[in-house]
């Protein structure tokens, strides 16, 4: 079981398929046009709908929700479907709110996903800081997820979640061997409220993270479709292309898929 197929649905949302498993990350399926309120005066409008409708996904075995309190990572349409999609892994705060089908994890805690006829997946929650120093009480808890299973050739499949590059994230290469990285970018800012402070990585930080982690494959997500994303692919791609490991990065258009050796 050495291949993983990643389908970019839009925003942070991706379908991960390997060894019979079908796993969704940060599901968002609302139509475009709505404005979402993130708290503390921050808002965003959804500009583009999902490239694949939830009804067309087929069966889902598990869901990874980096955080539940921002509509660009879990929107009402997806939240209503969570109980039909198997186990949801998320933060402890989100699990307490979303229901019995959820398991809550803090950074560096692990759990397993098991199903008949499929390899067991060990999932490790990874740290995230969704903003500048001191912003955690405002932005709330967020985690990433690293997935390990038997037969991986290059290393684990890591979904970074919404985060900036900060000291705890720099610990990842000393704790995990990452083969494939689903990297959340977007350079989220709310200039009317907090100036130039960022709440997710920009391409420069993304390139630095690639250099630190040394994954074999990188698939960027979370850079299009929302008004609070300040660095789209057109702006981010040249920065990544000029980095030492540009050949490891695969940009996948919404609605398209890429199959990689895991």
Explain this structure:
With 262 residues, this protein is α/β, with parallel strands linked by helices. It has one domain (3-248): Ribonuclease Z/Hydroxyacylglutathione hydrolase-like (Metallo-beta-lactamase, Chain A). The chain has 7 helices and 15 strands. It has a 7-stranded mixed beta sheet with strand order 8-7-6-3-2-1-15. Strand 7 (87-91), helix 2 (92-98) and strand 8 form a beta-alpha-beta unit. Helix 6 packs across helix 7. The chain is globular, with a radius of gyration of 17 Å. The N and C termini lie close together (8 Å).
What descriptors fit this protein?
262 residues; alpha/beta; Metallo-beta-lactamase, Chain A; seven-stranded mixed β-sheet; six-stranded mixed β-sheet; 15 strands; 30% strand; hydrolase activity; MBL fold metallo-hydrolase; Metallo-B-lactamas; UPF0173_UPF0282_UlaG_hydrolase; hydrolase
Q: In a nutshell, what does this entry contain?
A:
Helix content is 17%, strand content 30%. The longest helix has 11 residues, at 203-213.
List the SSEs and their pairings:
Elements: E1 3-10, E2 13-18, E3 21-25, E4 35-39, E5 42-45, E6 62-64, H1 76-81, E7 87-91, H2 92-98, E8 102-105, E9 110-113, E10 121-127, H3 136-139, E11 143-148, E12 156-159, H4 172-175, E13 178-184, H5 191-194, H6 203-213, E14 217-221, H7 233-241, E15 257-261
Parallel strand pairs: 3-6, 6-7, 7-8, 12-13, 13-14
Antiparallel strand pairs: 1-2, 1-15, 2-3, 4-5, 9-10, 10-11, 11-12
Number of E-type strands: 15
Widest beta sheet: strand line-up: 8-7-6-3-2-1-15
Number of domains: 1
How is the main sheet built? 7 strands, mixed
CATH class: Alpha Beta
Q: What name does the CATH topology carry? A: Metallo-beta-lactamase, Chain A
Note the run of SSEs as H and E.
EEEEEEHEHEEEHEEHEHHEHE
What is the level-2 CATH architecture name? Answer: 4-Layer Sandwich
Could you say which structural class the secondary elements and strand pairing correspond to? alpha/beta
**Radius of gyration of CA atoms, rounded to a whole number:** 17 Å
């Amino acid at each position: 079981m050495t291949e993983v197929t990643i389908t970019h649905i839009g925003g942070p949302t991706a379908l991960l398929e390997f060894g019979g498993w079908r796993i969704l990350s940060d599901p968002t399926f609302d139509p475009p046009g709505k404005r979402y309120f993130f708290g503390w005066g921050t808002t965003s409008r959804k500009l583009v709908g999902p490239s694949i409708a939830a009804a067309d996904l087929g069966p889902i075995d598990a869901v990874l929700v980096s955080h539940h309190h921002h509509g660009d990572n879990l929107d009402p349409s997806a939240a209503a479907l969570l109980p039909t999609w198997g186990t949801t892994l998320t933060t402890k705060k989100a699990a307490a709110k979303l229901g019995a089908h959820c398991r809550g994890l803090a950074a560096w805690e692990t759990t397993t996903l098991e199903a008949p006829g499929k390899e067991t997946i060990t999932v490790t929650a990874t740290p995230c800081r969704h903003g500048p120093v001191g912003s955690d009480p405002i932005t709330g808890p967020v985690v990433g997820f690293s997935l390990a299973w038997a037969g991986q050739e290059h290393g684990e499949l890591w979904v970074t979640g919404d985060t900036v590059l900060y000291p705890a994230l720099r610990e990842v290469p000393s704790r995990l061997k990452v083969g494939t990285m689903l990297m959340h970018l977007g350079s989220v800012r709310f200039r009317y409220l907090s100036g130039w402070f960022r709440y997710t990585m920009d391409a420069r930080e993304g390139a630095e993270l690639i250099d630190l982690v040394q994954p074999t494959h990188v698939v960027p997500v979370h850079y299009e479709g929302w008004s609070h994303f300040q660095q789209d692919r057109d702006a981010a791609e040249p920065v990544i292309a000029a980095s030492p490991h540009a050949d490891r990065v695969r940009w996948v258009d919404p609605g398209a898929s890429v199959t990689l050796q895991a």
